[in-house]
Amino acid sequence: MIDFLKIIDIPKVKDVRGNLGVVELDTIPFEIKRVYYLFDVPSSASRGGHAHKEQEELLIAVSGSFDVIVDDGNVKQKITLNKPDKGLMISTGIWRELENFSSGSVCLVIASGVFDEEDYIRDYNEFLKLKS
């Protein structure tokens, strides 16, 4: 796996009435500053297409599935998220693209920072220059 990526096990409380996933401060290695989610994404669409200078993120497929293409400037890797008790921790400086969304999928993103356009690297060539 690319350095600075990690699959996080989301603690779950099992119950015959349905399971409960719990994300608390000790679940992830950063303070939560922002939570948002992607939904109703057409299967032919892609999301992401950027890297962050400072922000870290945890991505969870709370429903359905999608692929996350991660790129550290040298190696690209595809990770399929399809379990609500597994999250993909993406550190700073990693390019990500999300694609192949299943019908009804929801991608929950837990971030270490609030939205700051200055933190985004949205041009792939600029990303590669910064990585070299």
TrEMBL record:
InterPro entries: QdtA_cupin_dom, RmlC-like_jellyroll, RmlC_Cupin_sf. Pfam families: FdtA (PF05523). Transmembrane segments: none annotated. It comes from the Bacteria. CDD domains: cupin_QdtA-like. Residues 6-131 form the Sugar 3,4-ketoisomerase QdtA cupin domain. This is WxcM-like protein.
